[in-house]
Write a structure and sequence with these properties.
alpha/beta; Peroxisomal Thiolase, Chain A, domain 1; 2 domains; 3-stranded mixed sheet
Length: about 425
């Protein structure tokens, strides 16, 4: 790890989440370790039913039903996760100024759900726009979910969304880390949100690409690395972390989940959809360099692998290139349990692995019955959790459409 003074060391002190199988980190971790999936099947407007990950959480815990109706599904998820993260961190703003708190939310998509719903609504009235809601514009601006969080919590510092396709959750975490190091804010609420199960267009597009997963048992539809994989299971969800400078976290006696020590982002600059392992490898190498770590010092790699044939193969090529010979590095995948939560994917997957620093377990990739030879990595933990002596470092991959790659490295906190 590179030597930094405490005021430049950035730590995670709280986590709030809504996943297709849990609404808090403890339940999320338990189900990942047990290999449980709660992917279900939903009916889609204009389409046949499809496997999907749908969140169940207490939607009115932190704001009223009327406020949820005025806002968006993404905002509802965000408000829940942000409040849960603050409660988890023990932050009540007695030690932090709301003017110096930043909210950075990663999004893959936003506004599609609202627009589809409004078009459908006026179609029942012969497309008379008099029936179009006047709430549409504030609901569909890209900063909406972050803004809904600030309004709920009275946060008056900067808020904005980070649009980075399926790398967006990691990108927002990187943004929060950078803003703290630049002394732009003293506290960062950062993470990612996905409301995409409300959009038939996203399902239809993946189906048109031949990339929408199908299986008679929805809990087995998401199966990265498996020979029988046939696409992505689309999921909604959210995860928000509280990030603080280490000196402030220690001053208030905070529990520390881990320290963000390395990160990187780059671009493939090749194709709208197809990933490129060479650039992914370069992104991992840059994150390692910034963290001051060698590949063999990484304990867990949480893969981005979505269950598409070429995507999984390209990432495995990249991992082989960077981690060849690293026989104490273990590899897992969280999408096999919860599907692909798009903008929330990276941060949900990181959250699911953070407790490894305490229990020293690697949660398994489930639904892996026949490993694709092109995805054969020696460290893959398949179907059953693996107990280690110690977990010191987690490398989290997130890659997205139009060729954007992000990698975050989080380490066990050490004085």
């Amino acid at each position: 790890m590179q030597n930094r003074p405490d005021h430049e060391r950035i730590v995670i002190t709280g986590a709030g989440l809504a996943a297709p199988n849990a609404s808090n980190l403890a339940d999320f971790r338990r189900k990942l370790l047990n290999g449980e999936s709660e992917i279900t099947t939903i009916d889609l407007r204009y389409m046949d039913p499809a496997p999907a990950g749908v969140c169940t959480f207490e939607e009115t815990r932190y704001r009223k039903k009327k406020e949820n109706k005025r806002g968006t599904r993404a905002g509802c998820i965000g408000v829940y996760c942000a409040n849960e993260a603050l409660v988890d961190a023990g932050i009540d703003f007695s030690r932090y100024d709301r003017d110096r708190t930043g909210v950075y939310i990663g999004l893959t998509e936003h506004g599609t759900v609202e627009t589809e719903n409004e078009v459908y609504n006026i179609s029942r009235y012969d497309y008379n726009v008099d029936y179009w809601t006047h709430h549409h514009n504030p609901r569909t601006v890209l900063n909406n979910p972050a803004g809904e969080i600030t309004m709920n919590l009275g946060i008056t510092g900067p808020h904005y969304s980070v649009g980075a396709a399926c790398a967006a959750g990691n990108a927002a975490l990187i943004q929060g880390t950078q803003m703290l190091r630049l002394d732009e804010v003293d506290l960062a609420l950062c993470g990612g949100i996905s409301e995409c199960v409300g959009s038939f267009g996203i399902f239809a597009s993946f189906r048109a690409q031949g990339a929408l997963a199908e299986h008679q048992d929805p809990t087995r539809a998401s199966r990265p690395f498996d020979m029988a994989r046939n696409g992505i299971v689309i999921s909604e969800g959210g995860c928000i972390f509280t990030l603080e400078r280490l000196d402030k976290a220690l001053e208030r006696g905070a529990r520390i989940y881990g320290e963000v020590t390395g990160y990187a982002m780059n671009s493939d600059a090749r194709d709208f959809v197809l990933p490129f392992g060479e650039r992914q490898a370069q992104c991992m190498e840059l994150a390692l360099q910034r963290a001051g770590r060698r590949p063999e010092e990484i304990t867990i790699i949480n893969t981005h692998a979505t269950g598409t044939r070429q995507g999984d193969i390209e990432e495995c090529k990249a991992i082989r290139q960077v981690f060849a010979g690293c026989d104490t590095t273990w590899i897992n995948n969280t999408k096999s349990n919860i599907g692909h939560a798009m903008g929330a994917a990276g941060v949900l997957e990181l959250a699911g692995n953070l407790p490894s620093f305490v229990d020293n377990m690697v949660h398994p990739t489930i639904n892996l019955q026949e490993l694709d030879p092109e995805c054969d990595l020696p460290g893959i933990v398949a179907n059953k959790a693996k107990q280690l002596d110690k977990v010191d470092t987690i490398l989290n991959n997130s890659f997205g459409m139009v060729g954007i790659n992000s990698v975050v490295i989080v380490e066990r906190y050490q004085e």
